[in-house]
């Protein structure tokens, strides 16, 4: 009986240690992307202003395939571009037989949403605003449930076309399109 209890305890300890080994530290690129200029993605909405061209000045959405449908020139690639790169792209296309010297300005009108899941009051999709942290996103989603692990959360983020997941503290900043997962605490 004593050896069975010892064997059972050893199995429990081994199980707990194996469960902890699945954790990987947050990749370096995960935080480096925070210091880079914002790159557009599907779901973003931009305000394009073409000086002295009221018919072209409007708000446009980046579609699921990463393009912006712009009058006269058609589809303009936007995914992965900064606002300044998109300005240049639109101006270059307008220069090709439409306008002599277009003056184009692009500003972000609405960012793509974030998603909050797991042990929160109201999981779902929420609007992103600049300066949003994990803690603020959880507050918007109804706060932690009584079972929530309040120390750290998992964030899934698209970095240069590669989807990465990392464990961060609640004071970390979020980016548009991030998915926050609040885990259940063990005890």
UniProtKB/TrEMBL annotation:
Keywords per UniProt: Signal
MF GO annotations: polysaccharide transmembrane transporter activity
Domain Polysaccharide export protein N-terminal: 35-108
Domain annotation Soluble ligand binding: ranges: 114-164
Originating species: Mesorhizobium hawassense
Protein name per Swiss-Prot or TrEMBL: Polysaccharide export protein
Keyword match Signal: yes
Presence of keyword NAD: no
Pfam short name (any one): SLBB
